[in-house]
Specification:
single chain, Ppx/GppA phosphatase N-terminal domain-containing protein, Nucleotidyltransferase, domain 5, pyrophosphatase activity, five-stranded mixed beta sheet, globular, alpha/beta, six-stranded mixed beta sheet, GppA/Ppx_hydrolase, 13 helices
């Protein structure tokens, strides 16, 4: 088999990966739909009917795209928002009814493990790496090397979740920023403490916040996965972007180069999460990877073929 597909249902967006191996080369294409299925789940404990409908429609379209490429086995995973929702079975059943595909609702540590497998597939660097995956509802930390995972954690801080919790104004106030930073620092203090004596050669960022920050740093008018992959993003540039974002209205953010308009309302929070983590581990740059849990799902499929 030389064609693979995978779908990830995140808090902010649903993504499809199409992967083909041909004549020794790998052709990858990712497609994203910002359905925001996790909107207000932190407050209501439930997925909205609108969110379910939009997301099921997106998954049906993605399954069709994969099947049109001759891909029949299309694993679908759902992460933070769906696993936290009381009515998650309603969503899972709706997808099964519409597409015949089962959605696997995975725990945070499994999400982190898949992210690690994906990063390793696309990583040139060697040594000890700390992978940070800032999603819409949670952030995963994976520490290890090319051969083994040595530490793996998931905590409930994400760009959508914390924006809804702390940011009430378009122009971020000093009070909002202080409360956000305090909450992030308190949330990550244990994992940072566990990392204190561990050597880190590279910090690797995956997920929408990390790739968007790289895109904004490069001021990309059209997103280019290959250009973003393996970008080295310095913390001083993250600080500069944060400074710009908190002074801008939502409409102004939507016109920033490199920023997808549908992510304009949550990117500030995601960027602050990223900066606080880098501050706490004492690193001044992060390597951005376009390989993540979707590639991890492809790795699992390829591995099962060998077995």
């Amino acid at each position: 088999m030389d064609k693979y597909g995978a779908i990830d249902v995140g808090t902010n967006s649903i993504r499809l990966l199409l992967w083909e191996e041909k004549e020794g080369k790998i052709y990858r294409k990712k497609t994203l739909n910002s359905t925001r299925i996790g909107q207000k789940v932190d407050h209501t404990g439930r997925l909205s009917q609108e969110g379910i409908k939009i997301s099921v429609d997106a998954i049906e379209e993605f399954v069709s795209m994969a099947e049109n490429k001759g891909i029949k086995n299309i694993p679908i995973i759902a992460t933070s928002a769906v696993r936290d929702a009381k009515n998650r079975n309603e969503f899972v059943d709706a997808v099964l009814c519409r597409t015949g595909k089962k959605v696997h609702v995975i725990e945070g540590k499994e999400e982190a493990r898949l992210g690690y497998l994906g990063v390793i597939m696309g990583l040139d660097e060697v040594g000890n790496i700390l992978i940070i995956d800032i999603g819409g509802g949670s952030t995963e930390f994976i520490y290890g090397d090319r051969k083994n995972i040595k530490l793996l954690e998931s905590i409930d801080i994400g760009a959508v979740r914390l924006t809804e919790k702390f940011i009430k104004n378009e122009l971020v106030t000093k009070g909002e920023e202080e409360k956000l930073i305090d909450y992030i620092d308190e949330s990550i203090k244990d994992i940072i403490g566990n990392m204190k004596d561990k050597p880190i050669d590279w910090v690797v960022g995956i997920g929408g916040t990390a790739t968007t920050m790289a895109s904004m740093d490069k001021k990309m008018m059209i997103y280019d996965e290959d250009e973003v992959h393996n970008t080295k993003l310095e913390i001083k540039n993250i600080e500069m972007i944060i400074g710009q974002l908190k002074k801008m209205t939502l409409e102004e953010r939507k016109h920033m180069a490199g920023l997808q308009p549908k992510r304009a309302d949550i990117i500030y929070t995601g960027a602050v999460i990223l900066k606080r983590i880098l501050d706490r581990i004492g690193k001044d740059k992060i390597l951005i990877s376009e390989y993540d849990n979707l590639e991890g799902l492809v790795y699992e499929q390829k591995k099962s073929e060998v077995i």
